[in-house]
Amino acid sequence: MLLAACGGGGGGSSAPAASGQLTLTGCVIAANATACQATIGWTASQATSPRVVLGPTTLATSASGTLQAAVGGERITVTLFDGPVRLDERTVVGTCVAASWWNGAQCAPFAVRTTERAATAFVEGASPVTLEVVVYRPFAPGPHPVVLFHHGSTGNGDDPSLFRITFESRAVARHFTARGWMVVFPQRRGRGASDGTYDEGFEPDRSRYSCLQGPALAGVARALEDADAALAHVSGMAGVDATRILSGGQSRGGILAIAHAGLRRQSFVGAINFVGGWIGEGCADAVPVNRSTFVRGAPFPAETLWQYGLNDPFYSVAHSRANFDAFAAAGGKGRFAVHDRGGTLNGHFLLDDPALWESEMDAYLARLANP
């Protein structure tokens, strides 16, 4: 492949090399649809034969422009060429609308998604505080058992723009609704579209989460108040079997799920913890904060399930297993499982790989049904 031409004698210089850049924006595929329109933009400089290719198809031959192209739910490559020379290459994919999943051909609905407001006893600035609650209901009629699944933090807590992103896990929702469970994702105060101030253990200037035991444990106490409000809301929802509620969560939500089950042990049939912890083990107070919070769950009488991933930058397997051992020594019951996402993939995002944890989860649900 010819990349450049050398100038001849007589002091001539080479022509400037061609360069280019792609800008891709994905799109949302509607329920039962096979594709959506992604936006593809590009600019090529010093290119004599520019060409934009989507998979095997040439879309354009101009030096710059923007167009829309149909993409499905599988990643497809977009390449910007100048003749045979590749200037830039990226991938684009369509994302299925909420409560649907890509089945290889289209976005197939798997549940009914709604949002609700949970009343609380909290008041801020003389105004009552309500919490955003995202609900996934199976298509079959109820009453349904329920998974109350709590969100985590936002990394180091140093990007306030992340606080207002509503958390929900399509992998969790699809897994449980397929098995007849309703799944509820409550957003704690100041998170997602919930009212109130997000205050779960920050530095005094709110620049990031605090690593100190005092603020961190005060944040745990505040989160448990929100978990109580969410539990009260779920228990009164239509179509719910309030005798079969499962406490669950990821990261801060995972440790919260275990602690909440110990605090409200008569309300839950089980508890599931994905990569749980309150502050990363890089914090000097990580051991006392995380261990004491997990031990709060030890009075829960039924089995719990703890699932962790290798290569987790917040909680190593050794740190998390030591937390589990402390929980067990205090009387807690449970199973500790470790999964490998492979390569350099971040183990803290284990939730995104249901193929790794689904069989462990199904076995746990079977044990709960037949203790």
Describe the structure.
- The chain is of the alpha/beta class and 371 residues long.
- It folds into 2 domains: 19-96, Immunoglobulin-like; 110-369, 3-Layer(aba) Sandwich (Rossmann fold).
- It has 6 helices and 19 strands.
- The strands form 5 sheets. An 8-stranded mixed sheet has the order 12-13-15-14-16-17-18-19, with helices on both faces.
- A hairpin with a 2-residue loop joins strand 7 and strand 8 (85-92).
- The longest helix has 23 residues, at 213-235.
- It is globular.
- It starts with 18 loop residues before the first strand and ends with a helix.
- Mean pLDDT is 95; it is low at 1-9.
List the helices and strands and how they pair.
Blueprint lengths: L18 E7 L1 E3 L6 E10 L4 E5 L2 E4 L3 E8 L4 E7 L2 E8 L1 E3 L3 E3 L4 E3 L2 E13 L2 E11 L6 E7 L19 H8 L4 E5 L26 H23 L4 E11 L1 H12 L6 E5 L11 H10 L8 E6 L7 H13 L4 E6 L14 H16 L2
Parallel strand pairs: 2-9, 14-15, 14-16, 16-17, 17-18, 18-19
Antiparallel strand pairs: 1-3, 3-6, 4-5, 4-7, 7-8, 10-11, 12-13, 13-15
